Amino acid sequence: MVGPALKKFDSHKAIHDAGLGGAKERIEGMRELLAKEKYENLTEEITSFIEFVEGKIIVHADTEEEKGGLYTLAVKKNPDLHDKVQHLIRDHDLMKIIVDLMKKELENEEKDFQKLVDFSSSIIIVNEIHSRDEEEALLEK
Ligand SMILES: [Fe+2]
Ligand SMILES: [Fe+2]
Origin, by domain of life (predicted)? Predict the structure, then answer.
C-alpha cells in the first residue's frame, strides 16, 4: 500500500533529497581518500556507500514498484502514464545494476578504485535525474 508520504509531493521529495544528500556527502570523502591513495579506508567507505544506497535508495525504489505501490496506483489512475512508469523502473534497474557491478569489483583482489568511485558518481547522477522526473510526472502538488 502507498503511504500518504509517497503520494504527496513535499514528503516524497524530502525522502528523495535525504537519499541523494546522504549519497553526495559520502562521495566527497571517497574522492579525498582516492586522491590520497588510502585504499583500505576507501574500501570501507565504498562498502558503506553501497549499504546506504541499498538501505535508502533501493528500498525506496522497491516500495514504489511493489504491488499496490505508487507506480501501480499512478497507472491505474491514468493509463497514459504506463510508458513513463516503465522508464522510471528502468532508472531503478540501472541503479541496481551499478550497485551489483560495484559489489563484483569489490570482490577482486586488484580493485579498480577509480572505477568504483565513478560507479558511485553514476548512481548519484541517475538518482538525481530519476527523482526530479518522478516528482514531475507522478506526484500531487
Ligand atoms: Fe523512484
Ligand atoms: Fe520516489
Answer: Bacteria
Q: Is the pTM of this model over 0.90?
A: yes
**How many structural domains does the chain have?**
1
Q: In terms of residue numbers, what domain contains 73?
A: 4-138
Task: Give the ligand with the smallest distance to the CA of 15.
Answer: 2
Cα Rg, the chain, nearest whole Å: 16
- Which tens digit of pLDDT belongs to each residue from 14-36? 999 999 999 999 999 999 999 99
Distance between Cα 101 and ligand 1 center (Å):
20
Distance 7 CA to ligand 2 centre (A): 9
Q: How far out from the chain centre does Cα 10 lie?
A: 18
